[in-house]
Amino acid sequence: MTKEPNLSDLESRLDKSSLPRHVAVIMDGNGRWAQRQGLPRVRGHEAGAESVRAVVRTCRRLGVEALTLYAFSEENWARPKAEVAALWKLLGRFLKQERAEMLAQGIRLNAIGSLHKLPTATAQALRKVMADTAGGRQMVLTLALSYGGRQELTEAAHRLCRRVAAGQLRPEDVDEAAVAASLYTHDLPDVDFLIRTSGELRVSNFLLWQMAYAEFYFTELHFPDFREAALVEALTEYARRQRRFGQTGQQVEEAARGR
Ligand code: IPE
Ligand code: IPE
Ligand code: MG
């Protein structure tokens, strides 16, 4: 029988110079993970919170600049009320427990989405940790909460229209940079690497604009089973990819040699 590679073996094989700047994760499969074991779905979300810790720590340790986690979609409001309430409660607990570590690790907490829809207590706790960690320079951790990519783009369109109507901007000045600057993610680099767990092959309204040239990675693992080793494996796969941005493979190789 072949031995399962351990974390340090995996990490030693990872080319640290080819890490993505911005990793985004669609954390899916918590419910199925729990149901598979005859547990209530909420237990899956709790186990998923442990994976969040593992993913945050690992990205920070390896030097990933930006990590964005899809924690609650605009569409997730349609779930049973008790599950929605349990998710917000869990987030509150997570914020309380992780604040000290975020501060110690220089992690800046950020949030994107229709944040005004969050329960008051959750929004308050979130604002507090965001303010407390505002000086963090090592990594920005963005939580997508009540987030929808189409809603984000629609809001950006509204913002730009208002500026045009106010005479602050000419229609011809609305270029890609102006759109990007009107998004929730205006201060983040584009997504380099998108991971989705649980075997679903879709983007579910996540970061539609920002993913234009992201590399996609899908794993059958449910999110509660996605821990350090699984992440390092995913990053190793990323490091092997050739990103061409429309150019030929040869052009990309030549540019890399000339560096
Ligand atoms: C992802 O797990 C977490 C959220 C969407 C909040 P799910 O809850 O979607 O788990 P499945 O897809 O039902 O297994
Ligand atoms: C996407 O997962 C949203 C989050 C991970 C927060 P869903 O489980 O809600 O996605 P669909 O509905 O299966 O596409
Ligand atoms: Mg799901």
From TrEMBL:
InterPro entries (UniProt xref): UPP_synth-like, UPP_synth-like_CS, UPP_synth-like_sf
What processes in GO biological process is this protein linked to? polyprenol biosynthetic process
**One cellular component (GO) term of this entry:** cytosol
Q: Which UniProt keywords apply?
A: Magnesium, Metal-binding, Transferase
Q: Which SUPFAM superfamilies match?
A: Undecaprenyl diphosphate synthase
According to the UniProt entry, its GO molecular function terms are:
ditrans,polycis-undecaprenyl-diphosphate synthase [(2E,6E)-farnesyl-diphosphate specific] activity; magnesium ion binding
The record's listing under PROSITE patterns reads: UPP_SYNTHASE
Subunit organization: Homodimer.
Cited function: Catalyzes the condensation of isopentenyl diphosphate (IPP) with allylic pyrophosphates generating different type of terpenoids.
Q: What is this protein called?
A: Isoprenyl transferase
Give the source species. Desulfarculus baarsii (strain ATCC 33931 / DSM 2075 / LMG 7858 / VKM B-1802 / 2st14)
